[in-house]
Every structure is written in structure tokens, then in C-alpha cells.
Amino acid sequence: MSDRALSVVRAGALTTVQDQGRPGHAHLGVPRSGALDAPAAALANRLVGNATGAAVLETTLTGCSLRPRSTVIVAVTGAPCPVTVDGRPAGWGAPVRVPAGALLDIGPARAGVRSYVAVSGGVAVDPVLGSRSTDLLSGLGPAPLTDGTVLPLGCPGVPHARVDVVPHPAPPAELVLRVTPGPREDWFTDSAVRTLTTRSYRVSPASNRIGLRTQGPALERAVSGELPSEGMVLGAVQVPPDGRPLVFLADHPTTGGYPVIAVVRETDLPAAAQAVPGTPVRFVAVRRR
After folding, report:
1. Which residues of the chain have pLDDT under 70?
2. Do 12 and 64 contact (CB within 8 A), yes or no?
3. Which of 19, 48, 115, 219 lies at a CB distance of 3.0 to 4.6 Å from 192, suitable for a disulfide?
């Protein structure tokens, strides 16, 4: 293998390859996938001189450790975390030079959930349906990283950014999700619709890349029947039998049989990627644009 490669020394709890995803294949039953915090992934790429859509690594809570076979420039964004090179502190949210053979350690998130690691040249695993993203629901793309995985890297492009640090949104202390009415709002009582947008929920520990699950008051159905499966979109707020809202994220199924009471604005979803379990959640009703 070329020396343009990266060895995984410590894979962490869940580290996957992600880019901008594979939208446009829902008719084939393929979710869009891609980085949950897309602005953080794009920023990391800009810092190392990659195109915005280059593939990066998305870590979950515990970070990962990597060893490049050649000298690379890396940047870590998203959830704030300690970054070291051969045990020496390095910058978070800034381009960092990592010599060949050095150990790059991305530590546990100090706040938030997911950190993004961009490497100059991008992660160059083979694309599937136009994307290098790992899709946990369909199994498309590379498998989640394991210790010992070797990842090919592309050739560096333009020079990396010349900055010491860049501003970045902090993980939410309260997650505010703006919603418009969903196609099955009329399957719920008026009281349930009011409850969704006036009561507070919390992020459930059962949340993952498929959906953000919530804990809080159950939403009462006005229609007790079952739906045939119908199309699901990113940000759909589906209500399973326990009555607690579930917000679909990047690896969501393309069809589903539980009613969708509302849909979250896509611009609010990156914050959902960084909301730790227990974070308060408010659904705020807005008009359709």
C-alpha cells in the first residue's frame, strides 16, 4: 500500500468514515447518510485544504488514535476534545502537522458527542453510489473502524489554512428544534400537538445516527389504526408506540409505518448531532416557508 495511508491504533466507541452522503437514492431504499454535523466536517476539511466534500472521520464520545504513514496535516472539529501528537498537546479547531509514524490521539469529547478528523488529501476508501460514507442502517460504505484498520489517503490539494484557531458553535445546552406540521399531524389529538410544542423533552441515551430519541410526555393518538409504510425524510418526527418523539437523522430508513407528527428544519439538525443524553429538547412550531 502507498505511504499515503492512515493506521487506526484505537478505533474508539464508534468511528466511521463520512462525507456529504449519498442523497437521491431513497427510491432504492438507500438513506443519505453522511456526517451528522455537516458544518463541522466541512470546516475540518477547509482547515486542511481539502474540498468541502472530502471524506473525514466521525468519532463518537471517546475519540480515536491514528498513525499516518507519511506526514499529514489534520484538523479536529465538532465536539471539543483534547488532541495530542506523540503525547504533546496540539490544537483543536486548527490545522496540525503530524509527522510520519507519529501517534495522533483524539481524546474523549469534553462536551458534545461527535468530533470530526480531516486529513490532508481526504480518506480515499472506495465510494459506493457516489459516497464514501458509512451507513449504519443499510451497511453500505466502509465498516465502522476497528483497531488495525488501514485507510488510504488522497493526494493533498491546496495549502492548508493559516490560522491558529477558528470559531465554532458550542454543543447545545438546550436543543431547540423548529418544526412544521407533518403529514400525519391529524392522527394525534389536539392536546398531543400542543404537548409537542409546549412541553420539554430530553435526549435519550438510546439515540444514534439513525435517530434522536427523546424522553418526556407521551403523545396521544387520535387514530388508533396502523399505517402502511410511507416515505420518510430527514428530520421527520416519527412517533412510535411508546408515544415519545423520534427525530430521524442521516442514517434513517427511507420508509416507515409510524405516523410523522412534524418535520424538523434541516438547519437545526447539526446541533442534534452534538446533544448529549439528558440535554433538554424543545420543539418550536414555525410556519412553512
Report:
1. 1, 288-289
2. yes
3. 219
